[in-house]
Design brief:
Blueprint: E1 6-12, H1 30-39, E2 43-46, H2 51-60, E3 67-69, E4 74-78, H3 85-88, E5 95-97, E6 101-105, H4 110-123, E7 129-131, H5 137-144, H6 148-155, E8 160-165, H7 169-181, E9 185-188, E10 193-196, H8 201-215, E11 220-227, H9 233-237, E12 241-244, E13 257-260, H10 265-279
Parallel strand pairs: 1-2, 1-11, 2-3, 11-12, 12-13
Antiparallel strand pairs: 3-4, 4-6, 5-6, 7-8, 8-10, 9-10
Helix pairs in contact: 1-10, 5-6
The chain binds magnesium ion (MG).
């Protein structure tokens, strides 16, 4: 077998991973972010956040790589970035063209499952929850600690519905069973439970990795993924190197190599990424 030099690429969760859980700051990760740019390694933001939120952050971080939004429901590929339209169009069943992005939908549209979700809640008083579709942007700001402008961006969701569950654990199990019958899933994130169709962050990772592999056939992809919550686990499992950022959840990914960061959020992100970049 011929040796193919590695092509490293990074998928990262945002909240409580690259961003501080409380302040949403990424500044402590600046040294590692700068080093990634110097080395030309794609940094793919892979989050439960909306495109509107992630676009702002990508601009702030000077990134022009694809974004995996709303837990893998939507992939946004910058039109002035790593790929051309001809390179991506066969990979998505339908592509929506916006000013800055080509959008590939991987999940179900939010409208389709919200209706089911609310019907279930009306049908059973045990199913007590509230979520983004019940809230104004002001409520979102209150529940997330986001400034109001950011809360508006977070409110523009296309593929996921974040909720807070107020019922019992037993009722939650029954609720999950009912959702599954409609091919709807619930995945716990750091702040919310995320309801969506059957897509996740790993779908986004795999889809984009296929594109990068096609573009660089002489190289062997080396995927690094970083995350802190159960909704990151599939993404971490699908990577060659998984970096677990400590949080209240104790994740145990099955990736070939797993690194457990000692420090939380962007500080841990920075330390582990700089150490990895010494090796790749
Ligand atoms: Mg997180």
């Amino acid at each position: 077998m011929t040796f193919r030099p590695p092509y490293p690429l990074v998928h990262t969760d945002l909240d409580a991973t690259l961003l501080n859980h409380d302040t949403y700051s990424w500044q402590p990760a600046l040294p590692a972010l700068t080093r990634l740019q110097e080395l030309g390694i794609p940094l793919i933001l892979n989050s439960s956040k909306t495109l509107a939120e992630m676009q702002e952050l990508a601009t702030e971080l000077n990134l022009s790589h694809p974004l995996v939004c709303e837990n893998g429901s939507l992939i946004a590929i910058p039109r002035n970035g790593d790929f051309s339209l001809s390179e991506i169009e066969t990979y998505f069943p339908s592509i929506e063209v916006t000013k800055n992005y080509w959008l590939g939908n991987l999940g179900r549209s939010r409208g389709q499952f919200i209706e089911t979700l609310h019907k279930l809640r009306e049908s059973n008083p045990e199913y007590r929850f509230e979520g983004y579709s019940d809230w104004s942007a002001e409520d979102v700001a209150k529940h997330t600690g986001l400034p109001i402008e950011q809360a508006h961006l977070s409110h523009t969701r296309q593929g996921t519905e974040p909720i807070h569950w107020h019922g019992s654990d037993e009722a939650y199990k029954r609720f999950l069973g009912e959702l599954a019958q409609y091919e709807i899933q619930a995945v716990a994130g750091g702040r919310f439970i995320h309801i969506s169709g059957l897509s996740d962050k790993a779908h986004g990772l795999r889809k984009l990795n296929e594109l990068y592999q096609l573009k660089h056939p002489q190289r062997e992809l080396l995927t690094i993924a970083l995350g802190d919550s159960p909704n990151d686990l599939n993404m971490l499992n699908a990577a060659d190197i998984a970096v677990v950022i400590p949080n209240k959840e104790k994740l145990r990914p099955s990736a070939q190599k797993v690194i457990y960061a000692q420090e939380p959020g962007p500080t841990g992100w920075n330390t582990e990424m700089l150490a990895l970049l010494e090796q790749v």
